[in-house]
Amino acid sequence: MKAAVTTKAGNPDVIEIQERPKPQIKKGWVLIKIKAFGLNRSEIFTRQGHSPNVVFPRIQGIECVGEIEDDPSGTYKIGQKVAAIMGGLGRDFDGGYAEFTAVPLEIVFAFESNLPWNILSAIPEMFQTVSGSLNEALEIKEGETLLIRGGTSSIGMLACQLAKTKGLTVISTTRNPEKEIHLKENGADYVLLDDGQINSKLKGLFPKGVDKVLELIGIETLKDSLQCIRPKGIVCMTGILGGSWTMNEFTPMGDIPSLGRLTVYMGDAENLHKDLLQEFIDAVAEGKINLNIDKTFKLDQISEAHSYMESNQAKGKIVVEI
């Protein structure tokens, strides 16, 4: 099979297209013929060598969609459409940057859809992250105010749409004035230009602060986001678009406002419910949700796709078709 192999930690050019044998499946695993996969920011950090347990060379890719090629357990039919997500995929064992992948049954999710593969490939990880962050971590409710820090990311764009369907008022941020219109077209009620300190601007709109904050930039703006919530408001850190994992100084009694709440969402396959996934796919097919796919690449363009993702030019999800 053809595979995109990250040969060592480094820049995008460390990813090489190679011929590899088809993966061998073991008990409790299935073989998937991959049709497409979405790219994720975490794969940049893995490629750069920041995922501590990853051993190179490695076929990366924490998600994929395709068809069952072989399932010794008989759980799935040959040719059945499935998604695979997380659970060590692309980190502990070879992942989705290939024509085939072998994965454990517990991270496989069957679905029915006539949507094109590049559309379907944008869904699994993005939906799992957004749904888990909003519903499980932030427990959003109709009538609340939600600040999305990092609004032009694919996660931020989808989070805005899902929050609006639940009846929330959404404030999205961007560092680029040219992207403001895209956030408004995506449904944001307010857009704030983000220079790293927006709490005073936000308090001009909502003097008591907002109910919930989805923090996608990470520790660079986390302290400021904490100052944006009302008493008993919640900040959920889900993303690290800023590229830093560790905060040098953090004083809980001071950086977290009195009665404020801070949590994180680090979802896995177990947080993705099969019925909700099918429901979401159907909503995309019916035009109720716009996935904001920015660009589709081919497998032999994977280095170019990584460079594009790293450049922060995208206004939505980047996907790769086999």
What do you see in this structure?
With 322 residues, the chain is α/β, with parallel strands linked by helices. It has two domains: 2-123 and 291-321, Medium-chain alcohol dehydrogenases, catalytic domain (Quinone Oxidoreductase, Chain A, domain 1, Alpha-Beta Complex); 125-264, Rossmann fold. The chain is 26% helix and 27% strand. The protein contains ten helices and 15 strands. The chain has helices at 41-47, 117-120, 124-137, 154-165, 180-185, 199-205, 219-226, 252-255, 274-285, 302-310, and strands at 2-6, 15-19, 29-38, 63-70, 81-85, 100-104, 108-110, 145-149, 169-174, 190-193, 210-215, 229-237, 261-264, 293-298, 317-321. The strands form three sheets. Strands 3, 4, 5, 6, 7, 14 and 15 form a seven-stranded mixed sheet that branches. The longest helix has 14 residues, at 124-137. It starts with a strand and ends with a strand. The relative contact order is 0.16. The mean pLDDT is 93. It comes from Dyadobacter frigoris. One of its GO terms (molecular function) is NADPH binding. Residues 10-320 form the Enoyl reductase (ER) domain.
Descriptive keywords:
Rossmann fold; six-stranded parallel beta sheet; Quinone Oxidoreductase, Chain A, domain 1; 10 helices; seven-stranded mixed beta sheet; 322 residues; single chain; alpha/beta; 2 domains
Radius of gyration: 20 Å
Number of strands: 15
Average pLDDT taken over every residue: 93
Q: Which structural class do the helices and strands define? A: alpha/beta
Strand content: 25-35%
Encode the helix/strand succession as letters: EEEHEEEEHHEHEHEHEHEHEHEHE
Question: How would a textbook summarize the main sheet?
Answer: 7 strands, mixed
Using the alpha-carbon principal axes, give the shape: globular
Tally of domains:
2
Terminus-to-terminus distance = 11 Å
Quickly name the level 1 CATH class of the largest domain.
Alpha Beta
Alpha plus pi helix count? 10
**Helix share bin:** 25-40%
State the CATH topology of the largest domain.
Quinone Oxidoreductase, Chain A, domain 1
Unreliable stretches (pLDDT < 50, length at least 5) are: none
Q: Considering the protein shown, what is the CATH homologous superfamily of the largest domain?
A: Medium-chain alcohol dehydrogenases, catalytic domain
CATH architecture of the largest domain: Alpha-Beta Complex
Domain Enoyl reductase (ER): 10-320
InterPro entries: ADH-like_N (IPR013154), ER (IPR020843), GroES-like_sf (IPR011032), NAD(P)-bd_dom_sf (IPR036291)
GO molecular function, one term: oxidoreductase activity, acting on NAD(P)H
Keywords: NADP, Oxidoreductase
